[in-house]
Amino acid sequence: MKKLGVPSGAWAAEAGHAVHSPIDGSLIARVALEAPQQVAARIGAAHRAFLAWRQVPAPRRGELVRLFGDVLREHKAALGELVSVEAGKITQEGLGEVQEMIDICDFAVGLSRQLHGLTIASERPGHHMRETWHPLGVVGVISAFNFPVAVWAWNAALALVCGNAVVWKPSEKTPLTALACQALLGRALAAFGDAPAGLSQVVIGDRAAGEALVDDPRVPLVSATGSTRMGREVGPRVAARFGRCILELGGNNAMIVAPSADLDMAVRSILFSAVGTAGQRCTTLRRLIVHRSMRDELLARLRAAYARVRIGDPRQDNLVGPLIDRAAFNAMQEGLVQARREGGVVSGGERVCQAEFPSAYYVAPAIVEMPGQTAVVRHETFAPILYVMAYDSFDEALQLNNEVPQGLSSSIFTTDLREAEAFQSAVGSDCGIANVNIGTSGAEIGGAFGGEKETGGGRESGSDAWKGYMRRQTNTVNYSRALPLAQGIVFD
Ligand code: NAD
C-alpha cells in the first residue's frame, strides 16, 4: 500500500472493518466504514466538481485519463500484486486486470475526441436538426470483489471523459485495491493540475453505503456490478427516482461443443474459462453442452487436463488460487450436494491445500455430469463447478444454451459455418456475448460488455457504451425567416 501511495491512516486503523487475504485468511488491514451521511457529503462534493468539469473541453478531460494510464503503467506490478493479495487472483490475472485498466484508459483518451452526435434531415426548409451528447452528472459505481479494479476503471475512464464526476463504492471485501486506485488517480490529478476537487471519490462501506448512493437523486446514473440479488434491489430503487442504471449482474455461461469442433482448442479453452480465477468470473464457463458422440472423449481429455492444474498460492507458479472466503466455499459445497441430489455425478470439488492454509479455502475444480439442465444448473454458483450435459441436435443445444435466467456470455466450438452463423443470429444465443471457437471469458476492451435477462441488460467498456454515461439532446435550429411547423400544421 505504501508503494502505491496510500496513507497508512486509511487502512491501518486499530479498530474497524477487518480485511482478510483469501490467500491465507490473515488479517491484512482494518478500514473505517463510512456512514450514509458521509456518503451524502461525498456526493455533494462530487456534484460541485461535476458543475466545473462539464465545462472542460472533452479532449482536455481525456488528458487526465491519459495521465492516469501512464501512472497505471508505472505501478502495474504493485497494483497487480495487491489484487492478488486482496482478491486471491494469480499473478498473471492480477496484472491482466491492471492491463485492462490501461487499455480502457487508451480507449477513453481516443474517445474524448470522438464524443460525436448526428445531423438529421429536417422536414422543414431552412432548418437544421442534430443530436448532441452532454455530461450527465455524478456517476455512482458499485463494484464486486472479483474484479476489484478493472470494473471501476471501465466506468471511471468513460465517465470522466464524458464530463462526469465519479463516486465509487467498492466491495467491502476489497477496499484496499480501491484506496490504491484512488491514490494513483490522485497522482494523475496532481499532474493534470486544475481538475476540480472531489471529481473522483471512494466510499469505503458496506451495503448501507451502497444504498445511500442508490437513493441519492444527485446521482443520475448508478453502474452496479454484482449478484443478481443485488441488482434486483438496486434496479427498482434507482428507477423509483427515475435515475438510470447500468446493471452488470450474474452470469451462467455455456459452451456448445459440436461434432466438428477442434477438440484440442476446445479443451484448452474450457480449462481457462471454467477454472481460471477459481471459477469466480461473471463470464466463467459453468455449463458445457457437448454432442453426445463426443462426450466421452471430451470428458476424458478434460479430466486429464484438470488433473494437471496447479492449485495453490496465487503468487507462486499456480493456475488456480483460493475462493474469496468460507461463505464461497460453503456455497460451492451446497451446490455440489444439490447436484448429486438432482442426479449429477461429481468429480473434484474437495478442499485442498488445507494443511498449508488452514484459514483459507482452496478447492479442486469440479466436473459434474448432469442428466439434464436441472435447478442447480440454472443457478449461478460462484465457484469452479462445470456442469456437463449431452445433446443430440443443434436445436436442442441452442435451447439448453438459452434456457437459463441469466444471459451474459456464450460460445460454440464448431467448424461448421452454418452452426457458427446460426449461433450468432437472431434465433441463436440470447446472450450479450456470443463467441465462436473462443471461450466465454476474457473479453476485450473494444467491444461493449454486458448481458441480457437477469444479467441486467447493461453495457460497459467499448463500442458505444459511452452513450450510457451522457445525456442525449435533440436540437432544431431555424436559420430561415419563416416559421413552418412540423407535420404541416398551420396555426394562425
Ligand atoms: P454482491 O452482489 O454480493 O456485491 C456487489 C456489490 O454490491 C458490493 O459492493 C456490495 O456491497 C454491493 N451491494 C450489495 N447489496 C447492495 C444493495 N442492496 N444496495 C447497494 N449496494 C449493494 O456480489 P459479489 O459477491 O461481490 O460479486 C459476485 C457477483 O458479481 C457474481 O454474481 C458475479 O457474476 C457478479 N459479477 C458480474 C459482472 C458483470 O459484469 N456482469 C462482473 C463481475 C461480477
TrEMBL record:
Stretch forming the signal peptide: none
EC class of the enzyme, as a word: oxidoreductase
The UniProt record lists the EC number as 1.2.1.3
Under the heading InterPro entries, the entry gives:
Ald_DH/histidinol_DH, Ald_DH_C, Ald_DH_CS_GLU, Ald_DH_N, Aldehyde_DH_dom, ALDH7A1-like
Q: Which SUPFAM superfamilies match?
A: ALDH-like
Source superkingdom: Bacteria
Q: Which Pfam families does this UniProt record tie to the protein?
A: Aldedh
Q: Which UniProt keywords apply?
A: NAD, Oxidoreductase
Spell out the molecular function terms from Gene Ontology. Answer: aldehyde dehydrogenase (NAD+) activity
Domain Aldehyde dehydrogenase: residue ranges:
17-474
Give the annotated active site.
E248
Q: Which family does it belong to?
A: Belongs to the aldehyde dehydrogenase family.
Assembly, in brief, is:
Homotetramer.
What's the name of the protein?
aldehyde dehydrogenase (NAD(+))
